[in-house]
């Protein structure tokens, strides 16, 4: 009977390992302005794995300005990067090897958007039984620059909202200009 139970336990363990995967959740913005800094957050549930690797493929001329890890000691995380071709495109591959995680591992990457356009970011994670990947497209837009000439004054503001901030400023300035004119008309100088 003991052998039978032990055999069932070993079969169940082997069967569960065949279908085991790292659970990974990646979040990043869909759109940012050129020159702005944004985060890519990779959350990994190691689910019993004591070693795994994560690689983030970013556009070739871009760089990660800083990265942070929680859920593992920084001394248990090694980092390297290199230029790589991936699916016919050149990328900067940033690689982290994580060992001995003590909970969910959260890897936060700080990146500055360099150019305008659509850019593909690929995340690859490797664990003893295999690997998986996910890709995200980031749209980088130019900051809008609105310029208006009103009542002989030039107004220039950078804004992501097209008209709202400039319209409020123009209305305020018009009202102030009208108040000043009415004050001067009351005083005959």
How would you summarize what this structure contains?
This protein has 189 residues and is an alpha+beta fold. It has two domains: 22-141, Immunoglobulin-like (Sandwich), CATH 2.60.40.680; 144-186, no CATH class.
What do these coordinates show?
With 189 residues, the chain is an alpha+beta fold. The protein has 2 domains: 22-141, Immunoglobulin-like (Sandwich), CATH 2.60.40.680; 144-186, no CATH class. Helix content is 21%, strand content 52%. It has a 6-stranded mixed sheet, with no helix packed on it. Strand 9 (117-127) and strand 10 form a beta hairpin. The longest helix has 23 residues, at 164-186. Residues 12-19 and 159-165 have low confidence and may be disordered.
Q: Looking at CATH, which topology of the largest domain would you report?
A: Immunoglobulin-like
**Largest sheet geometry:** 6 strands, mixed
Strand element count = 12
CATH class of the largest domain: Mainly Beta
Shape: elongated
Please tell me the total number of domains. 2
Q: What share of residues are in beta strands? A: over 45%
- Count of discrete alpha- or pi-helical segments spanning 4 or more residues: 2
Strand order of the largest sheet: 2-10-9-4-7-6
Class by alpha and beta content: alpha+beta
What is the CATH-assigned architecture of the largest domain? Sandwich
Rounded to an integer, what's the Rg over CA atoms?
Answer: 28 Å
Helix content: 10-25%
From the N-terminal CA to the C-terminal CA, the straight-line distance is: 112 Å
Name the poorly predicted regions.
Answer: 12-19, 159-165
- Order of helical and strand elements: HEEEEEEEEEEEEH
């Amino acid at each position: 009977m003991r052998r039978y139970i032990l055999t069932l336990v070993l079969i169940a363990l082997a069967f569960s390992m065949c279908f085991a995967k790292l659970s990974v959740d990646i979040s990043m913005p869909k759109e940012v302005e050129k020159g702005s800094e944004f985060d890519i957050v990779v959350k990994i549930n190691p689910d019993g794995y004591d070693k795994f690797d994560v690689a983030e493929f970013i556009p070739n001329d871009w760089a990660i300005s800083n990265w942070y890890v929680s859920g593992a000691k920084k001394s248990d995380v090694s980092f390297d990067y290199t230029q790589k071709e991936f699916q016919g495109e050149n990328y900067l591959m940033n690689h982290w090897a994580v060992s001995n995680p003590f909970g969910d591992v959260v890897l936060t990457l700080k990146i500055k958007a360099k150019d305008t356009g659509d850019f593909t970011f690929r995340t690859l994670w490797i664990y003893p039984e295999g690997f998986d990947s996910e890709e995200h497209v980031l749209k980088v837009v130019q900051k809008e620059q609105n310029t208006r000439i009103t009542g002989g004054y030039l107004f220039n503001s950078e804004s992501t909202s097209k008209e709202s901030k400039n319209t409020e400023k123009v209305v305020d300035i018009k009202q102030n200009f009208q108040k000043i004119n009415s004050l001067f008309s009351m005083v005959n100088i």
